[in-house]
Structures are given as C-alpha cells and as structure tokens.
C-alpha cells in the first residue's frame, strides 16, 4: 500500500436517501456550518435516492444552490448496501463523507476529523452523542459521554458504522457487497478497508446526533448475516442472551439471533 498523504482540503459527501425530505434539510444545514468552521471545502453532494416520492431531490437541489456545492443525484430502486456501493464508485475526491440523511454533525466535526488524518488511516468514524426514534422522540443520550474517551472506543469498536464517517476513497474502492447482505454493510465495508491495509479509527472528538434513527430489531436474519460474513465475534452475539434477560427485553430475539449466527458460520465456512 502506498504511503498516502495525510492532509485533506476537499471532500465529496455521499448520502443515501429515501423519503428524506422531513430530515435532510437540517442535516445539510449542520453540514454547511461544519464546512464553514473547517479548512475543508465540499466539492459535491452525491445523493443516491431510493425512488423517493416526496421532495427529497428538490430539497437537495435547493440546499446545494444555497451552499455552493455541486450536486449529483441518482434516483433508482436500490438497497442501502447497493446505494453505498454506487456512492463509492461515483466519488471523485480523495476523501469523502458518508452521511446519513438524519445525522446532525457538530460545528467542529469536519475539522476534528481533518486533524486526525494520518497516512494509513482508511476511515474515521464519529461519535453519536444521542439519538431519537419516531416512536420515542425523547433523546437517548450516550451514557459514556462523561467517561474517559477509551470507554466509548471499547464499547463501540466491535462494529463499524457509516452514519457520519470520513472515508479514504482508495481504501473503500472495489468493495462489492453480497446480494443477500441487507444489514451490517457498514461492518462489511470496515472489513474491506482493513483488508487493504488501512485502519478504521473511532474518533471520539467528532460528534453528531442521530435524530430519527429507527434501529432494526435484531433476530435470525441479522445473526445469520453476521455469522456468514464473519462480521461479529460469536461470544459477542451469545452475550446478547443474558443481556436480554437482565434488561427484560426480547430474549427470543437474542436466541434467534444466536441461532442464525451459528447457521451462518456453518454456511460461511462451506463457502
């Protein structure tokens, strides 16, 4: 792997969208404020849209005109992994930001990532400080916020995330998500980047809030894909069962996930 440059001046921003008009505008406003406060310029906003019927594309057009970014929109039926793969193929800058349509980055977010870049880093993942869901509009706050930064790193590092992650294009290029991988594509991307000899870094200084995240319930399918593609250690999946009992959450879902994981490991080993 070549010794890559450790500075950054321009980026593309890639956002997969679907019926995102209610959240995208505020996300782009936060992005613009972070750009203004940083040494980075945004070249192009790349929207991979899953055939939205609301004003998602019109809103993106208005905001890019307001903030002076170029705009690249692809609108076609696609899964989230397919959208991410297409975004990677279309990016033209050395570094780009994967950003969820509902992720609100803090003003110093881009600069915090820019200052952490080093030659062998392939991705910089930010820290989610809070999240809300459609069902529960009250923010759930990261309980590790006031603890030592390493507490969050240890807690989070078992899985890569692409909610608001700065990615070196050369590290991500060439990734091909399996057709059946409908979830955990972010961890699959992390494994790809690490297989190229780069590091996936968890940057506790770059913070964002997730405003309308609706986490998918964990069960057989998630476990199966985690096992088949070796995206999660088995002991970590197994711990979900006693944790579910202690927290009085769905024990059956945790059992189903572990069962799916076991089957996935067998299928994955067969090839």
Description:
41% of the residues lie in helices and 23% in strands. By secondary structure, it is α/β, with parallel strands linked by helices. The protein folds into two domains: 10-210, Spore Coat Polysaccharide Biosynthesis Protein SpsA, Chain A; 220-270, no CATH class. α8 (220-228) packs parallel to α11 (251-270). The longest helix is centred in the last third of the chain and has 20 residues, at 251-270. The radius of gyration is 18 Å and the shape is globular. The mean pLDDT is 90.
The succession of helices and strands, N to C, reads EHEHEHEEHEEHEHHEHHHH
Number of DSSP helical runs: 11
| Shape field | globular
- Chain oligomer state: single chain
CATH architecture of the largest domain: Alpha-Beta Complex
Specify the helix fraction band.
40-55%
Secondary-structure-derived class: alpha/beta
In the CATH scheme, the class of the largest domain would be: Alpha Beta
CATH H level, superfamily name of the largest domain: Spore Coat Polysaccharide Biosynthesis Protein SpsA, Chain A
């Amino acid at each position: 792997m070549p010794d890559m440059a450790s500075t950054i001046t321009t980026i593309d921003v890639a956002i997969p969208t679907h019926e995102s008009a209610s959240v995208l505008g505020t996300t782009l406003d936060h992005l613009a404020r972070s750009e203004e406060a940083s040494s980075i310029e945004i070249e192009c906003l790349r929207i991979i849209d899953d055939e939205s019927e609301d004003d998602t594309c019109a809103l993106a057009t208005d905001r890019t005109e307001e903030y002076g970014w170029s705009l690249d929109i692809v609108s076609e039926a696609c899964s989230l992994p397919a959208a991410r793969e297409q975004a990677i193929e279309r990016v033209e800058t050395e570094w780009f930001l994967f950003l969820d349509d509902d992720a609100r980055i803090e003003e110093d977010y881009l600069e915090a990532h820019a200052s952490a870049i080093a030659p062998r880093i392939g991705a910089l993942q930010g820290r989610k400080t809070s999240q809300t869901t459609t069902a529960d509009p009250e923010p759930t706050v990261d309980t590790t916020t006031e603890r030592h930064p390493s507490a969050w790193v240890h807690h989070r590092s078992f899985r890569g995330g692409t909610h608001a992650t700065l990615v070196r294009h050369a590290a991500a290029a060439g990734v091909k998500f399996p057709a059946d991988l409908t979830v955990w594509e972010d961890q699959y991307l992390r494994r790809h980047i690490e297989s190229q000899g780069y590091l996936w870094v968890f940057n506790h200084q770059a913070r964002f809030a997730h405003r309308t995240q609706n986490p998918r319930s964990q069960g057989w399918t998630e476990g199966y894909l985690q096992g088949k593609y070796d995206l999660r250690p088995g002991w970590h999946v197994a711990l979900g069962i006693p944790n579910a009992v202690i927290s009085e959450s769905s024990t059956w879902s945790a059992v189903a996930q572990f069962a799916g994981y076991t089957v996935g490991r067998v299928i994955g080993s067969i090839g």
